[in-house]
């Protein structure tokens, strides 16, 4: 069997096994690489290209969801900056301790090398974090927006760092990139006129790779950052969300190459494994630093913990540093222990399970609850008023249900939606809804539900609907719960979990179409 066939078969088996163990498939792809490396399987040159394409398209998709105003908020830029300093110091200190003990690369390097490694590992992996947020359906929650904001600031710091460390500055022509800003209306106009066929994802890929990656790289600016900024220029356009969805499967398939390529870098030696293990000791400190900084920004303890756990991993940027920096600044031998540390940092958070909630409770003594008026405005408890019905998730299904319940049945209805852009749009249309994260356990502890008769679960992620159902019943809600699902097995699971009524999405669409057709025939009859 040739190397390409072996890689394809291994990543499929690894992904399936990870799914059976209820772990993210990407961990199976990593494991496939680690299994293949000792067997002599070599990564073909095309794998690197596929991995780079996946990262570029991913960052373009991230940009489509970025609100630039969020980047200038203190809880984003100040947290990112202070955390980078703390993390760099902690990691450099650990490497200095290894040097005192005479361990391998740490002993051969000096304070400059320790600080370079420390700074490189102070960043979180954009690829991993966004994948995890997407799997949880949390990219538009407060936690997701904070995490993505921090990642964007870290990417900007990375551009400056590489330019200074390599002794190269962007081309003077890079100043012309600001012309992309006045060109944004043209790009947004083209997006508005595209259909729903293959031209839509093709448009996104071309923007990400040509004026994004290729143009920025040619002018001495990080190409990945260019793809992200091109996405930002389209963010907020009414069809930007549809564009992001059209790229979802393409991006996921390409990113398989990214994760398996890390595993194929090879297994470390004993000494390199020791260095990687010591580097991993910095992860809990990095995580706690994020928790404290977010808490000081007046966020609730749970928001601080969940955002911190999403960001607590090492970035693949650490590997880029080893390759990019001259040998007299950093020994290329650091590549293997850093690759092992980065890969392990992806695995460990996935094994945490429900421990973030346990950590929230454990930190209660040191990070006490604040009065509501002292909390960040975006993180205060919700008030349902006198609503009789609550709709969780105000996408097309949820908003249609909201209108039907209010207009046809005369119920007092309120919607809860995590995406602030969607909230603003629907509020402008006169829809009664509030911004909130229905996956937050504290939400159900604080909401007054005694006057609520019906809760409709219409969030796009099945796991979120199931978690909300579990928490509703755990907190004593005895009213009716209805849920919509995309797949038959999800419908069976949510009904078994305690929902009173369930509807498979396409079954509901067919019934609604039939109702409208009959109504139209009746109206047209003489």
From TrEMBL:
Q: Which UniProt keywords apply?
A: Membrane, Transmembrane, Transmembrane helix, Transport
| Annotated Cation/H+ exchanger transmembrane domain residues | 8-347
Where it sits in the cell: the answer is: Membrane
- Mind telling me which Gene3D superfamilies this protein's record contains? 1.20.1530.20, NAD(P)-binding Rossmann-like Domain
Q: Which residues form a coiled coil?
A: none
The protein's name in its UniProt record: Predicted Kef-type K+ transport protein, K+/H+ antiporter domain
- Keyword Amino-acid biosynthesis assigned to the entry: answer is no
What GO molecular function terms would the record report?
antiporter activity
Signal peptide feature range = none
Q: What is its main location?
A: membrane
Q: Which GO terms describe its biological process?
A: potassium ion transport; proton transmembrane transport
* Domain RCK N-terminal intervals: 390-500
GO CC list: membrane
State the organism named in the record: Klenkia brasiliensis
Q: Which taxonomic lineage does the organism of this UniProt entry have?
A: Bacteria, Bacillati, Actinomycetota, Actinomycetes, Geodermatophilales
């Amino acid at each position: 069997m040739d190397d390409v066939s072996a890689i394809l078969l291994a990543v499929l088996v690894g992904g399936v096994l990870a799914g059976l163990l209820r772990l993210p498939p990407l961990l199976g792809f990593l494991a496939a690489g680690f299994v293949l490396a000792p067997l002599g399987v070599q990564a073909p040159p095309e794998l690197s290209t596929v991995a780079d394409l996946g990262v570029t398209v991913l960052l373009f998709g991230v940009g489509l969801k970025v609100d630039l105003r969020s980047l200038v908020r203190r809880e984003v830029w100040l947290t990112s900056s202070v955390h980078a300093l703390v993390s760099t110091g902690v990691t450099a200190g650990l490497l200095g301790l290894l040097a005192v003990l005479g361990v391998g690369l740490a002993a051969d390097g000096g304070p400059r090398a320790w600080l370079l490694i420390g700074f490189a590992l102070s960043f979180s992996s954009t690829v991993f974090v966004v994948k995890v947020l997407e799997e949880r359906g949390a990219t538009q929650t407060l936690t997701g927006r904070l995490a993505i904001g921090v990642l964007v600031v870290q990417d900007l710091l990375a551009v400056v760092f590489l330019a200074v460390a390599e002794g190269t500055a962007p081309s003077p022509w890079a100043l012309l990139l600001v012309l992309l800003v006045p060109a944004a209306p043209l790009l947004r106009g083209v997006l508005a006129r595209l259909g729903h066929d293959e031209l839509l994802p093709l448009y996104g890929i071309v923007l990400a790779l040509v004026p994004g990656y290729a143009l920025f790289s040619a002018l001495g600016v990080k190409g990945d950052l260019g793809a992200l900024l091109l996405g930002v220029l389209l963010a907020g356009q009414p069809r930007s969300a549809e564009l992001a969805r059209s790229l979802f499967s393409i991006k996921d398939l390409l990113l398989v190459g990214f994760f398996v390529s890390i595993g194929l870098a090879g297994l470390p030696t004993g000494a390199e494994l020791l260095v990687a293990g010591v580097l991993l000791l910095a992860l809990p400190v990095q995580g706690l630093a994020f928790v404290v900084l977010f808490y000081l920004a007046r966020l609730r303890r749970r928001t601080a913990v969940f955002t911190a756990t999403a960001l607590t991993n090492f970035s693949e940027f650490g590997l880029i540093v080893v390759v990019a920096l001259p040998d007299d600044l950093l020994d290329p031998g650091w590549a293997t222990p850093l690759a092992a540390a980065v890969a392990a940092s992806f695995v460990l958070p996935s094994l945490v399970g429900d421990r973030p909630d346990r950590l929230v409770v454990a930190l209660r003594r040191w990070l006490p609850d604040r009065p509501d008026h002292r909390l960040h405005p975006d993180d205060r408890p919700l008030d349902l008023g006198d609503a009789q019905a609550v709709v969780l998730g105000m996408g097309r299904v949820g908003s249609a249900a909201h209108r039907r319940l209010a207009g046809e049945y005369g119920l007092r209805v309120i919607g809860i939606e995590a995406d602030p852009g969607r909230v603003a749009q629907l509020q402008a249309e006169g829809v009664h809804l509030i911004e909130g994260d229905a996956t937050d356990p504290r939400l159900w502890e604080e909401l007054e539900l005694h006057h609520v008769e019906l809760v409709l679960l219409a969030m796009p992620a099945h796991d979120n609907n199931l978690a909300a159902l579990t928490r509703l019943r755990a907190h004593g809600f005895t009213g009716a719960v209805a849920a919509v699902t995309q797949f038959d097995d999800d419908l069976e699971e949510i009904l078994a979990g305690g929902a009173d009524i369930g509807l498979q999405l396409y079954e509901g669409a067919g019934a609604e179409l039939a109702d409208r057709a009959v109504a139209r025939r009746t109206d047209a009859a003489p």
